[in-house]
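---------- Forwarded message ----------

FYI, see the EamA domain-containing protein record below. Original note from H. follows.
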Amino acid sequence: MNAERVGYRDENLLLGAFLTTAAFFCVAMVGTLAKVSGQYTSTGVLLLFQNAICLVFILPVVARDGWASVRTAKFGLHMLRAVTGTGCWYALFFAITQIPLANATLLTYSAPLWMPLIAWAVTRQRVAAPTWIGAGVGFAGIVLVLQPQGRSFSAGEASALAAAALLAVAMMSVRWLGATEPPLRILFYYFLLSTVMSVPIAVADWEPVAPAGWPWLVGLGLAQLFSQALIVAAYRHASAEKLGPFIYTVIVFTAVIDWIVWDHRPTLAAYLGMALVIGGGLFAMRAKHDTISAAGPPRHGP
């Protein structure tokens, strides 16, 4: 086991898979609650409360452990993660006001397909052919979901794809941070920086919250908090490479919720697109994992 894996325990893949699935059920609930809350206030206000509620809960934990526990030499990476994560959530929250929740979530969580392209652009390191094949299959699924023939590309779809690219960078930054930073420190800086960044966005986009919207806003923040806590707990029981495929459970959960709550029944093309995105993503992940295994232990850092 890598000595740098802070807080890592003996592997328990079953428990790690369960916790990851629970985490992405909470992520699906974040999207659902954001869509409902959006009826009562603006996207900027949603973003602020999502982050601020999480920060309120994590501050006492940090204070208990001592402020020395959040001293870091990786502030730049924390900032990168916060900027891309905040941008991703804003773009997703906007997208779900324009297009069905399931489509917005599918497009956003196509992020693993973008990671080989971003990694190549940043590092110029060679990407294995099977990884490109998996990504290509996934992008074909995105085209099926978008069905661009005969209609214009909507702002909601463009926003969801922008969220995917931002999420891909955020996921890569978390991986780099996870090599040396403990989970509490990663969560603290994300919620702190994201809350600070959300304030001017909320001010510029301010709409008073209707009384009926407050329970939904609180639920949104708690769902985000639980999703982050569960994924951190999951990574203490199994590696990110082995748990990565479970990210796609959010697409299934969201499609079911969208169908039940808003009666958005997926079309055959949407089903095929989901299958290709998930299948292509799993193939790309597996190919990348096999390449890393054959090359030896990974080197951490950007």
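H. also flagged this: Residues 1-8, 291-302 have pLDDT under 50 and may be disordered.
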